Each structure stands twice: as C-alpha cells, then as structure tokens.
Amino acid sequence: MRSSQWKFRLWPASLAGRTASVLLIGLIIVQGLGLTIHALDRMDVQRLVQARDLAMRVVSLYRTIVLTDDARRPQILKELHRGPELSAVLSPLPPDVNLPGMPPIEQRLLRINMSLLVGGGPQIRWRELVFYGNHPMRRVVIGMHLPDGEWLNVSGTVEPLRPWDSPTFLVAFVLMTVTAAALTLWTVRRLIAPVRTLAEAAEALGRDVNAPPLPVDGPTEVATAAVAFNTMAARIRRFVQDRTELLTAIGHDLRTPITRLKLRAEFVEDDEQRAKILVDLEELEAMVSATLAFGRDARTTESVSSIDLAELLRTILDEAGDARPDVQEKLGYDGPAHMAVQARSLSLKRVFVNLVANAINYGGSAMVRLLSPDNRLVVVEIEDEGPGIGPADLERVFEPFHRGEPSRNRETGGVGLGLPIARNIMRAHGGDVILANRPTGGLRATVTLPV
Ligand SMILES: Nc1ncnc2c1ncn2[C@@H]1O[C@H](COP(=O)(O)OP(=O)(O)OP(=O)(O)O)[C@@H](O)[C@H]1O
Ligand SMILES: [Mg+2]
User: Fold this and answer.
1) What radius of gyration do the chain's Cα atoms show?
2) Domain 303-450, what fold?
3) What stretch of H or E contains 128?
C-alpha cells in the first residue's frame, strides 16, 4: 500500500507526465555531463595559464640573479620587486621543504615554459631544476641550481583552480536549461494532445454512434489513427443501421400475411375459435406495429440538445395523471425544479413515459425522484408500491416481447417492448436502466445518464 503510493507519487500516471519526466531526466544527465566537460576543460586552460605566469616571473628573477656577480646577488635579491606571493633565497643547498614532489603534469608544464623563456647559452642555463608542490598546486617551491654552484630557491603560492569562475557562463547555462525544459514540456503537451482527443472521441462514440468524425490532421501517425477511428465508427454505424433495417423489413413483410389471415379467419365457422384467432392476430399486429415504430425511431437520428430533465419528468407525471385520474393522488415528484442535461429529447421522453406507465400499470403508483449529479451521473429513480418483479425476471423483462403476464391482456399494457427500448435508448446515451425490488415492497427503476 505504502510502496504503491510512493510509486504513484514518483512515477506520474499520465502519458504526458511520464514522457516529460523521461525527457527532463535525460536533459539533466546531458547538462550534467556538459557541465563536467566544461569544468575539466577550463581547469586545463587555467593550469596552462598559471604555469606560464609563474614560469615568466621565476625566470625573470633567475635571469637577473644569474647575470649579477656573486657578491652583489643577496643585495639585488633583496631589492628586486617580486610581488607579495613570491619569495626567493640563495642557498648552497637545494630547497629543503616538507612538500611532496609536484604532480608530473604541472612539473612538465613549468619545465617547458621555463626552458623556453630562459633561452641563452650554458653560462646562464641552470644545472638542475627541482619542483615541489602540494595539490592542488597552491604552494610551489622551485629550486634552480645556478651554473656557478649556488641554488636559487623560489617559493610561491598560486590561485586554486576555479572552473566555475565565470558569471556569464552560469547565467547562460541556467537560461539554456530552463529554455530546454520549457520547450520539452510544451512539446510533450502538444504531442500528447491527440491521444486525449482520441479518448474523448471514443467516449463520444460510446454515447452516440452518430457522433461527428474526428478531424484528420496533425502528424501522420495521428492522422492515420483518426482515419482508422473514423472508419471503425462508420462500420459500427452501418452495422447498427443494417440491423434496424432488417428488423423493420421483417416487421413490414409480416403485415400483409397478418391482414390476409384476419380476412380468412372470418370464414371460420366456430364462433369461439374465430374470436380467439382474431384476438391472437390483433396481438400479432400490435407487436409488429411496435417493432416498426421502434425501427422508425432508431432510424431517425435525433440530435442531442440541452433539455430540462426536471421539467420533462413533471410534464410526464402531469400527463399520466390526466390519463389516469384514479391514481393521480399516488403520483409524486421529488427533486430540483430545473436540471439541464444533454440528450435526445424525444427518446428520453419515451424512456420515462414507459417507466412511469409501468409503475402505474403494474404498481399502482409512481414516485419519481431526480437526484443531483454525482460522479458526473444524473440519477432518476421511479418507484411504485406494487408487487415488484421476481428476482429471476429482473433481467428477463429487458428481453423484447417478454411480459410478466403471459395472457397479453391489452388492458394492462403493451407488447413487452417498453423496457428493452428504454434500455437501448439509455445505453445509446452512455447511461443505463436497472430494475430492483425495494426492501419495503414495490419496484424501483433506476435510470442513469452521464452529464
Ligand atoms: N413497475 C413494475 N412492477 C411490476 N412489473 C413490472 C413493472 N414494470 C414492468 N414490469 C413487468 O415487465 C414487463 C415488461 O415491461 P415492458 O415495459 O417492457 O413491456 P409492457 O409494459 O408490457 O409493454 P409496452 O411497454 O411495450 O407497452 C411487463 O409486462 C411487466 O410484467
Ligand atoms: Mg411498458
């Protein structure tokens, strides 16, 4: 639990977050390497400059001393201006200091510089050179064995190497890093945007097969994905259309034989049998008409618009009350006075008309409750106080032509298409219809609709 929380915090959930993190980490590594290379380079240059500078001063001191005769040397040495960081002594012995030998790179640099600078013939050339220094080359001692036997021992301090000592560089570096980071974030956001668009389009297609197609633009991969998505949407649309058309065609073709059968039934001599046959045929005709009506509805593509759901529910209850004055007392609405939702208004009305009619017809009352949106879902509950539906039938009533009452009594209802159509419509909106028996008796139909 703890570790997964940590993982969640360190590793972003979104694709944009992950891509940006990887790129930013890469940027930090590259910048770090660049900074190291720059620092090492600068240190090399500084080492060169320092060696040259020191060699110049030491050699000029040496030349002055070597060209002066022995007796005057100590005097001259005292008078010479050497700068505060350089001290020199004449001694019969090489320098006796408690310092390790100078690192080979610095030794070589100093030796080359000094040899180049001193020039001249053997009368001024030193016999021997010794170097001591401590890392990182802050204190340096150089011993020069003069041609006539004495040692000139010079000791000095040099500045430590400062690889970062450049204000412009640091400003430029920070500016560069910030710009690169900003550019990375911006690009990632832009590149990932089509993924979000695709997800939204898939969501929209789930709610409405007739949702507008995705624009085919942007980078090739995105355009290809959009084309593939649009093709898929078109195929789904055609599939749904084909099925509906098949249904309507069957319904349509059944009408003629039914009419013929009705005419023929008139010739049945047995009165009772004739009456029964005619009732069956009437029922068959009603089923066919309902099927045709459903097919017609499904084919007319009503557009999604903003409708006041609270108003719609109240109107349906009013109309139901007018049609059935006997149950008017038992109809009620509970919920906000207005609530705007995006839906197909005629289809939505069909759903609630059927559910309210069912509650009245099979439950003898209808209590409609509109709950405020929770989790981007609007919920409508329609409750009655009737017998409810046996648990085994709660899902079966959603099958076409399934009726709780097998006698198909015309007075208590229709043909058993109301609930399947209601569920069909709500699922096309991205919602659903669910039935459940209330613990206190009666049935509760719950309609969900995303907002
Ligand atoms: N509120 C309810 N209480 C008890 N039974 C119900 C309730 N609502 C529906 N039913 C049962 O579910 C069956 C199917 O309902 P559905 O609305 O699909 O068809 P119908 O009302 O019979 O006909 P139609 O709605 O097509 O005119 C009903 O015949 C009924 O037996
Ligand atoms: Mg019904």
Assistant:
1) 48
2) Heat Shock Protein 90 (3.30.565)
3) strand 128-134
Q: What's the pLDDT at 265?
A: 93
CB 386 near ligand 1, within 6 Å: yes
Reported pTM = 0.63
Q: Is 382 in the pocket of ligand 1 (CB under 6 A)?
A: no
Determine contact, residues 61/82, Cβ cutoff 8 Å: yes
State whether CATH 1.10.287.130 applies to domain 208-301: yes
> Which residues of the chain form CATH 1.10.287.130?
208-301
Tell me the ligand closest to 362's alpha carbon.
1
- Are the CB atoms for 360 and 366 separated by under 8 Å? yes
417 lines ligand 1 (CB under 6 A): yes
Atom of ligand 1 nearest to the CA of 359: 1
Q: What is the pLDDT of residues 139-187, one digit of tens each?
A: 889 999 998 888 999 988 888 888 877 778 889 889 999 999 999 999 9
What contacts 142, CB < 8 A, 6 or more positions away?
Answer: 58, 95, 110, 129, 130, 131, 132, 153, 154, 155
